[in-house]
Amino acid sequence: MLTQYERPVIQKLHSGLMNKFAGNTLLHRKVKTEIADVPIDDLVAQFGSPLFVYSEQTLRRKFRTIRNAFTTRYPDVTFGWSYKTNYLKAICAILHQEGAIAELVSKMEYDKAKALGIPGNQIILNGPHKPFAMLEAAVRDGVIINIDHLDEIEDLEAIATRLNRIISVGIRLNLDAGIQPCWSRFGFNLESGQAMNAIERIASGGKLRVNGVHSHIGTFIMEPAAYARQVKKMVAFGYEVEQKYGWRMDYIDIGGGFPSRSRLKGMYHAVEVMLPSIEEYADAICDALWASLKPEHTPKLIIESGRAIIDEAGTLITRVCGTKQLPDGTRAYVIDAGVNLLFTSFWYRFDIALGHPVSGRCEPSVIYGPLCMNIDVVDDRISLPPLSRGDRLVISTVGAYNNTQWLQFIEYRPNVVLVTQTGDVELIRAAEDLSDLERREHLPPRLAVVSVPNNPMIKL
Length: 460
Ligand SMILES: Cc1ncc(COP(=O)(O)O)c(C=O)c1O
Hints:
Lyase, Ornithine Decarboxylase, Chain A, domain 1, single chain, nine-stranded mixed beta sheet, binds pyridoxal-5'-phosphate, TIM Barrel, 2 domains, 460 residues
């Protein structure tokens, strides 16, 4: 029988001492045997590994918490579910059931919302690319449209001429809310006067009127005060427009950007310490509204939060498929899910738990994904006990942006399941196979018989 041998190395372990930021992580590692009360063993036995698992209860709870934070502070609040954050049909359907309308940024997302049966008056259309035909359909459907650039104004004017009516639109602003870098590529810049120039251009056309202001200051914003600054600037702009052109501001759409309870790379303290509560955001936003709105004027507050609602509801179960030792002695593990499934691994230090208790001293380790690509690193400095092939690692929080930005690259994408509120497990996206990948490919008939000619230069 073959026994595995690895050259021993001497490595300094810092166990026994508290470190400055994260406590002593070398002595233990979290174990997670269930997700939403369903044993991970059962999930894997039925649906394989890797496996994305969503908790419907967590998702609904999260949405309701955020909704309550705002609806208890302001009388007219609408949530637009940011499809790009997660457009799995089941996820969108749950959030629509909870009362969120659809926030869309492309023709593909528009098609998805329409296919789900969302009517036009429950859609917000943002984004820098709004093809003419979609824009026209959106106008006919009564969609809330936020203009991104001057060419869209021309398109909308052409549509207004065609329909022989004035079209109400919102204007997307980019502004300095004290968050660096300032996102300036979407919409019109406020401070430079570009946004007011756009309003003047709209007024001169005589075919559109502006009834809403939109801005999205960024993502994972850890400073509630930034939203207060944003809201005050937006309201002041809206009133300036009203004063000049008589257009009433019907809505203020503040975009998304609230952080999820996840740890960004470089964030050393626990998330509970680093991240403000949703109530602090709601206070900052609603206080700023009350302070800057005119008496008796309560325009609709639209919130397009994505990450903060869905991230914690998603977990990824993975499996160790190989163990290695790097030349410097560091332990390394190859798991069956990598950056192909976890786009957010470029920013997040995930919460990684063991699928079952593993004995042995924790050592600094690296977790690689399955791709034959050097960038495929899930965690490059985690302390783990000695793992073996077949051991499971349970990765959270992964509900935001991963199931939309995942790559069909090198590997198939796996099953995605939803644990219902009653503990049932439903498949919400089936694992891919070759037919999914090749369905759109065409092999010209002349190439249909594939053969590799014998090459006399190659000696096998
Ligand atoms: C216009 C708009 N609204 C909402 C969102 C959702 O942002 P988050 O997931 O950070 O809440 C985004 C994300 O980029 C966005 O561009």
